[in-house]
Structures are given as structure tokens and as C-alpha cells.
Design a protein that fits this description.
single chain, 173 residues, Rossmann fold, 4-stranded mixed sheet
Length: 173
């Protein structure tokens, strides 16, 4: 017969159990700050203060019961923040160019200590001289980033999307 110590031991076991249940939920939300690109060295003067994000589609809703994804709203906010830091975001007046982003694929592993995520996003820039930019980029998270698998997946997702946005901004140069 196994006897568990007093009330303190039971509280500790209960606390660990509760943490194990809620940790994936806390780790699942991709944040716009982690996906935002700080800026690029040389910006195209054609796009300076002339762009706006019109739509972001194809993102995956956060679901801790399956593999966490990147939802549309945080990605849209990260794109806007990245355009702003690069000087491309139209701050006043009507923008000359509209950006529509469609997440085509977010390739994620099911399990692992090192998680590699590949993000395929197609950016369409409408306006005079705009174009279509299919971008594929990857991001990695390791056990040293977080021992919690759901948190590692979120980090890998954020890094893949940040690399994707960075490649898009570089393609605009």
C-alpha cells in the first residue's frame, strides 16, 4: 500500500497537475511582438509611408488540443508593426498600396525536442507597380528555448512567421 504524505504533499501534487494542464494553454498564443521585424537596412522609397494591410487570411486558430497555429489577427498586427518600423506604413491619408497576406501552409512537426516550422505565405501588393510575393521561411525552437512542447511550437511558429515577414520586406526593396 502506498501512502502519500500529509496535506503539503497533496497540495504539491495538485499544483503540479494543474500546471501540467494549463501550461499548454498559456504557451499556445502567438504574439505579434515576437513576429514583428525590427526593420531592414534599406527601404524602397516607393513604399515609404504608402502601405496598409487590407487582409490576412488562412491563419490557424489557436487550439491547445491539437497543434497550435498562428491566427490572422496577431499576424496582421505583426505585419503592421513591421511595416511601421520599416517606414512603409501609411500613417495618414489614403495608402497607395494595399497588402493582402494569405497563409497557405504552416508545416509543423507532431513531436520532437527540436521543432522546425515552415511557413508559406503569399503577399499581394495592390496598387501601381505592386506584385505577388510567395514567401517560404522556417523557424526553429529547441528544448533550451522551452521544456514545454506547446511553448516550443509557439516559438517555432513565431520565428517562422517573423522570418517570412522579413523576407517579404526584403523582397520589396
Amino acid at each position: 500500500m502506498v501512502v502519500i504524505g500529509g496535506g503539503a504533499e497533496m497540495r504539491r501534487v495538485g499544483f503540479v497537475l494543474i500546471l501540467a494542464l494549463i501550461a499548454p494553454g498559456l504557451a499556445a498564443c502567438a504574439t505579434p511582438q515576437a513576429m514583428t521585424v525590427a526593420g531592414i537596412a534599406t527601404a524602397n522609397p516607393k513604399y515609404r509611408n504608402a502601405m496598409a494591410i487590407r487582409s490576412v487570411t488562412g491563419g490557424q486558430a489557436m487550439d491547445v488540443l491539437t497543434v497550435p497555429g498562428v491566427s490572422n489577427e496577431p499576424l496582421k498586427q505583426a505585419l503592421e508593426n513591421s511595416l511601421a518600423t520599416t517606414g512603409y506604413l501609411a500613417r495618414s491619408g489614403a495608402p497607395k498600396f494595399y497588402v493582402d497576406a494569405e497563409v497557405r501552409n504552416l508545416q509543423q512537426p507532431l513531436i520532437g525536442l527540436t521543432l522546425d516550422v515552415t511557413a508559406d505565405v503569399v503577399y499581394k501588393v495592390s496598387g501601381a507597380g505592386g506584385g505577388t510575393y510567395p514567401i517560404r521561411a522556417s523557424g526553429t525552437a529547441t528544448f533550451s528555448d522551452s521544456p514545454i512542447a506547446a511553448d516550443r511550437m509557439r516559438i517555432a511558429n513565431e520565428r517562422a512567421m517573423q522570418a517570412n515577414i522579413k523576407q517579404f520586406l526584403e523582397a520589396l526593396r
